Amino acid sequence: MSMRIPFNRPSVRGKELKYIKEAVEKGQISCGGEFGRRCEQELSRQHGRRCLLVNSCTAALEISAHLLDIEPGDKVVLPSYTFVSTASAFASRGAQLIFADIRPDTLNLDESQLPGLLDSRVKAVVPVHYAGVSCEMTAIRKTCMDAGVRIIEDNAHGLFARYGDEMLGCMGDMGCLSFHETKNIICGEGGALLLADDGDWHRAKTIRDKGTNRDAFLTGTVDWYSWVDHGSSYGISDILAAFLLAQLEDYQAIMQARGALWQRYAEELSDWASTKGVSLPYVPKDCQQSFHMFYILMPTNESRDRMLAHLKSRGIWAVFHYVPLHSSPMGRRMAAGEPSCPVSEDISRRILRLPFYTDMTREDQDLVVGAIRESA
Ligand SMILES: *Cc1c(COP(=O)(O)O)cnc(C)c1O
Q: What is the pLDDT of residues 333-346, one digit of tens each?
């Protein structure tokens, strides 16, 4: 069915093809080329952390699981309400998953539950900054510090967002970013790992390069390269890095456009929402969000499904997401204990994400707002 207004549409900023042409002409289009290095430098400068560019956020999460030497018998705490990769990266190394519930306001991991979920086998907590609004990291860090547990941030949504003065992705031991075409800054498929520790950074390069010390060879530190650690093929082609650099150089305009769209949805829908018992996103005062998405929480599962169908009949593609992982077939197999996540279940039944993309026009946004307001 053809839709007048898609849910997402990738935004091309202008220099992408020029940079790709340069990459091709340089004759080095695998991982480790000049554009990849420039992306890493830029992300590293912005975050004040070491950065490794990889081919997805899933890859970044998997590398972080390698770096922690996660093995069967270990446990990892994560929200049930998240994308599969947050869990699969750890489950594929044999970790048992402790599914935490989320807060009903920000839809982020409920930090008040965390102390009760930790035991001596827990190696890591993986907070997900849902919609690019930070988790309550002060409390999460204190709990993890007291228990000696590491923090891996899944920051697929929150590039360049802040918690107080701190950037998301830099508040734990490692932070994972996504440049998938549905995210804010894109290259089709891509990701990055932000690292606090120099040793982790060196080892992460080996893991990215199939467990070889190819990077040390390329930089002249060793005379030949060999198989030295676990690893896989997590590097990104320099063709995609070239695309990504064009986006990173224009990130302020991207953020600004998305911010304006987000504010406009919030303003145009607030009266309607309050008369219909619908909730709009909540952003705590100390959080500067990334404007990754705009969602509404309908009063019931039936009203949500009715709204989806109504919008579809107007050619508008809205979606809902996250079947809570603790109730998925694989999540049930990998879960430690008996997860209880009633908020995740409730939100999953009532959430609706509106079309939201960098190049969305005012006219298209008016159509969405109008269609929502006219619904019964
Ligand atoms: C998109 C997403 C991922 C995976 O990102 P890829 O780059 O597609 O691997 C992981 N976690 C969350 C929360 C996401 O939204």
A: 999 999 999 999 99
